């Protein structure tokens, strides 16, 4: 579902990624990990067509990211998702849903808000939400789009243990989704991921979670 072939990227005179190739299979939940500055966000931005490639190819759902059709197959949740604080959670859902569809599906909005445990808070202004609630609302908006592929950049960053667990439980509950998420929390990755793509020294290696635990000599996180 996500195919990266021989991607290279440089910033000014510094090479960030060199001949990167990665394949995330259909319905696979794969973590993208690496130390700070390894290029995780850079690779995600290249996959999404937000940064140019010096060389290489990217396909999402079988469509090149240089074409337009892939955007219907992918939803992206950045680390800092910009919501409208003066609007309620439900109003934010309505606004972002309207960007994808001409006709709003009210039942779908209700179902997604329930899925991310925000149904009771739907009429509260977003400025009163906790960071965990904001992150769940962002994830809910992505789920409303009902795409085959989800790409999440540090979805639990800055959350307390309870907020992190809520996000993890939602991700674990998803069916028929191909997910690539960047994270530095190895305990989270072990809970929900089947594979790990490890960025180091401009290269990437894909492991099963078990293989990664045996190969990489650090424990709690990848920072």
Structure at a glance:
The chain is of the alpha/beta class and 223 residues long.
Write out key terms for the chains shown.
7 helices; 223 residues; alpha/beta; 4-stranded antiparallel beta sheet; 27% strand; globular; 6-stranded mixed beta sheet
Please describe what this structure looks like.
The protein is of the alpha/beta class and 223 residues long. Strand 4 and strand 5 form a beta hairpin. The protein is globular, with a radius of gyration of 18 Å. Helix 2 packs parallel to helix 4, helix 3 (106-115) packs across helix 4 and helix 4 (131-144) runs parallel beside helix 5. It contains 7 helices and 10 strands. The strands form 2 sheets. A 6-stranded mixed beta sheet has the order 6-7-8-3-9-10, sandwiched between helices. Strands 2-1-4-5 form a 4-stranded antiparallel beta sheet, with helices on one face. It has helices at residues 40-47, 89-98, 106-115, 131-144, 161-173, 186-192, 209-215; strands spanning 2-11, 14-24, 29-34, 55-60, 63-64, 74-77, 149-153, 178-182, 195-200, 203-208. The mean pLDDT is 91. The chain is 31% helix and 27% strand.
